From TrEMBL:
Pfam families: zf-LITAF-like (PF10601). Coiled coil: none annotated. The keyword Membrane applies. It comes from the Bacteria. The chain crosses the membrane at residues 104-126, 132-152. This is LITAF domain-containing protein. Keywords: Membrane, Transmembrane, Transmembrane helix. Residues 79-132 form the LITAF domain. InterPro entries: LITAF, N-reg_PII-like_a/b.
Amino acid sequence: MDKNEETISLTKCDNSIQADEIVSKLANAGIASSLHDELNDPAYGAYGPNPGIEVRVFKKDLERAKSILKEITEKREKQLPWCPNCGSQNVVALGKVRPKLSKWAVIIGVLFVVIGIVCIILPFCVKSLESATVSFLIISLISLAVGVVLVIPQRERKNYKCNECGTEFYKE
């Protein structure tokens, strides 16, 4: 960076990983940037509050840098969990949870599977129903599909707790 040109603070990051990601994206776009306060002692409170790592850019590149920063922030917000109650990203993962199937869903699912199998076999066993074989086949496929969907367990969901308001929530 040229020492004669004025630099302006683009953002402050909580850690060097976020700051390095921003600097890398800016460099890919041809925007020169620098980090300020990167070498501060990570022991918070030892020498006063840590203000964070500042990313600085030239004044002439500020608008382009802001648009790149906005893209990075939006992408990160889509990936990171946030509290649906208060909007905070200060959440902690509690682990993965596999939703339990209710016994009624299993009973109804098994019933639909049995109906589907009966509808496949019935036209071949009862001569008077041979003309309705196609109808029974359609009914059997539909009831087999419904039965399988009811019996197959759902995929795991991640369970989180917000440190700000205490709300527990799931994210798939």
